[in-house]
Design goal:
With 479 residues, the protein is mainly beta. The protein is 6% helix and 35% strand. InterPro entries: Beta-glucanase-like (IPR000757), ConA-like_dom_sf (IPR013320), Glycosyl_Hydrlase_16 (IPR050546). It comes from Littorina saxatilis.
Length: 479
C-alpha cells in the first residue's frame, strides 16, 4: 500500500515536548526481556518503543508500561529469547502533566551475560520507523524448504480468525497517509462469515460507544477502548477531538505471522466498492535489513479506489474498474523508484468489485510478477548486473550492497490485507473528476473533518457488505 512520509501535524494531539527522562534499565533473564525506568515527577503514562530480531515478526513494537509497587515503569517482553550479542533498539514516549508529551532518543542495548543500564538522557525526535506492536509469541520452526510446499494457507472456515497466524492492527496510525479510519479488532470490522474473511469499514458514530459529539470533544484512547494499541506512530494510540476530528471511520487490517521469501502468494477475494474506499493486498519485510522505508522494500500486489468514477485529465478512469501493482524501493522516501515498477490493469467493461478474483505474486531470485485470474499486471526483471541499484540508475552509496541483486526483495515478507478510507498523500488526487466534488483537499489541515462534513455525498455509495473486502482464501507457497 502506498506509503509516503509526511510532516506530522502536531496540532492533532498537541505539541511533542523535549525533555530528559530517567535512565532505562534493560535486562534479559530466562528468555524474557525487561525494561524498567524510574518514575519522574508528573509522569502519567509511559510507552516503550523497541525492536529486536528475536521477535517472530521482527518489526518495531510499542507497549504501554505498567507502574510497579516501587514506582518504576516496567514492561516485560515474554519469550524474547535473545541470543548473546543480539541487540534491542528502544526509546521511551511519555505523558507528563508538567512537560506534556516527551520522547527520548533511540538507544541500543546488547544482550550480554550480565544486565546493562542503557543511557537515556537527551531529547530527540521520534524513531523514523513507525512503532508497531503485537503480542510476543513463539513460532513453530519450519523444516527445510521443500519445492512447491505450502508455507501457509487459510480458507477461513472457522468461527474466528486464528490469532496464531494473524495479527489484527488496532490503531489510528494511518500508514503515514493520514487516512481517516481507526483499525479495530471488533467483530463489526473484522469477521468470518460463510467461509470468508470480511474487512469492513463502518461509521464510527454507528457504534454505540460513540456519537457526533465524541468525534469533536472526546478522547480516543485505543488501548482503553479495544484492549490494545498496536501502533503509536502518528499518535495512533491516543488523540483528542478538540485538536482535530477523531477518525470518523472504523475498519479492519490484518497481517500474517508466517512470511515467505521467493515463492508464490495467492489471494482470492472480492474487493469493496464505495467512494473513497482504498483496499490493498500487499507485503512488507519481516526485518528492515536495509533500513527504513522504502530501503527494505514494499510489494503492493493489489490496490484500487472504490469510486465508480475517478477520471484523470486525459479522460482515463482510475476507479474500481482499475487495479494496480507496485514495488516500492529506494535510498530514501524522497527517492522512491516505484514509478519504474508500477503497472495498472483495467476491466474492459464492468468493475473488479462485481466478482471474486484471484491475485497472485510469483517471486523468484531474479523477477517479480503479479497476475489477476492468470493475466499479468506487473513484471519486474533486473538488468544483467547491478540489481535494483542499476535499475534505478542510482548514484552514491548502494543501500543494498550487502544483499543479492534482488535486494531489497531478497528477505522474508509477510502479507497484509486492509481496507483504508481517504488520506492526504494523493492516492485520491485533487484534480481527478469523481463525478462529485471531492470532499477534501490533500493539503487541508482539516481533511478528515471536511470528508465527514460531506457524508451525505458519499454515504449513499456505501451498501452493506459491498464496502468490505471479502477474502475466500490466501496461500503462501515455496517455489
Amino acid at each position: 500500500m502506498l506509503t509516503v512520509v509526511v510532516l506530522v501535524l502536531l496540532s492533532l494531539v498537541g505539541p511533542l515536548m523535549t525533555a530528559s527522562l530517567p535512565n532505562v534499565t534493560v535486562d534479559h533473564q530466562d528468555g524474557n526481556l525487561q525494561f524498567k525506568m524510574p518514575n519522574a515527577p508528573g509522569l502519567t503514562e509511559v510507552f516503550f518503543n523497541y525492536m529486536l530480531s528475536s521477535l517472530s515478526n521482527m518489526v518495531p513494537q510499542t507497549a504501554q508500561a505498567t507502574q510497579g509497587s516501587d514506582g518504576t515503569w516496567q514492561h516485560k517482553v515474554e519469550n524474547a529469547n535473545m541470543n548473546v550479542g543480539e541487540q534491542v533498539q528502544f526509546s521511551v514516549f511519555a505523558m507528563s502533566g508538567s512537560m506534556g508529551r516527551v520522547q527520548s532518543p533511540v538507544t541500543s542495548w546488547t544482550n550480554a551475560p550480565s544486565p546493562t543500564t542503557a543511557p537515556n538522557t537527551a531529547p530527540n525526535t521520534a524513531p523514523t520507523t513507525a512503532p508497531t506492536t503485537s503480542t510476543p509469541r513463539t513460532m513453530t520452526t519450519l523444516g527445510p524448504r521443500v519445492p512447491s510446499a505450502v508455507v501457509f494457507r487459510d480458507d477461513f472456515n472457522g468461527v474466528a480468525l486464528d490469532r496464531n497466524d494473524w495479527r489484527m492492527e488496532v490503531s489510528m496510525y494511518g500508514g503515514m497517509n493520514w487516512e481517516f479510519q481507526v483499525y479495530t479488532n471488533q467483530d463489526s470490522n473484522v469477521y468470518l462469515k460463510g467461509g470468508n474473511l470480511f474487512l469492513k469499514p463502518t461509521l464510527t458514530v454507528d457504534d454505540p460507544k460513540f456519537d457526533e459529539n465524541f468525534l469533536t470533544q472526546g478522547t480516543m484512547d485505543v488501548a482503553a477502548i479495544w484492549g490494545v494499541c498496536t501502533n503509536s506512530g502518528n499518535y495512533g494510540c491516543s488523540r483528542e477531538g478538540r485538536y482535530g476530528l477523531l477518525p470518523p471511520i472504523m475498519s479492519g487490517k490484518v497481517t500474517t505471522f508466517p512470511a515467505i521469501k521467493y515463492g508464490t502468494v495467492e489471494v482470492r477475494a472480492r474487493i469493496p466498492k464505495g467512494d473513497w474506499i482504498w483496499p490493498a493486498i500487499w507485503m512488507l519485510p519481516k526485518s528492515n535489513k536495509y533500513g527504513g522505508w522504502p530501503r527494505s522494500g514494499e510489494i503492493d500486489i493489489m490496490e484500487t479506489r472504490g469510486n465508480a468514477v475517478a477520471r484523470s485529465a486525459d479522460g482515463v478512469n482510475h476507479g474500481i474498474n482499475e487495479i494496480s501493482s507496485t514495488l516500492h524501493w529506494g535510498a530514501s522516501s524522497t527517492t522512491n523508484h516505484y514509478d519504474l515498477t508500477h503497472a495498472e490493469k483495467a476491466m474492459p467493461s464492468g468493475d473488479w468489485h462485481s466478482a471474486f478474483h484471484t491475485w497472485k505474486l510469483t517471486w523468484t531470485a531474479d523477477s517479480i510478477v503479479t497476475t489477476v485470474d492468470g493475466e499479468e499486471i506487473l513484471r519486474v526483471t533486473l538488468p544483467p548486473s547491478g540489481g535494483f541499484y542499476a535499475k534505478g540508475n542510482m548514484t552514491g552509496q548502494n543501500p543494498w550492497a550487502s544483499g543479492t541483486d534482488m535486494a531489497p526483495f531478497d528477505e522474508e515478507f509477510f502479507l497484509i490485507l486492509n481496507v483504508a478510507v481517504g488520506g492526504t498523500v494523493g492516492f485520491f488526487p485533487d484534480d481527478f473528476d469523481y463525478g462529485v466534488e471531492k470532499p477534501w483537499k490533500n493539503d487541508s489541515p482539516s481533511a478528515a473533518a471536511d470528508y465527514w462534513a460531506r457524508r451525505s455525498d458519499w454515504e449513499k455509495t456505501w451498501s452493506g457488505d459491498n464496502t468490505a473486502m471479502e477474502i475466500d482464501y490466501i496461500e503462501m507457497r515455496h517455489l
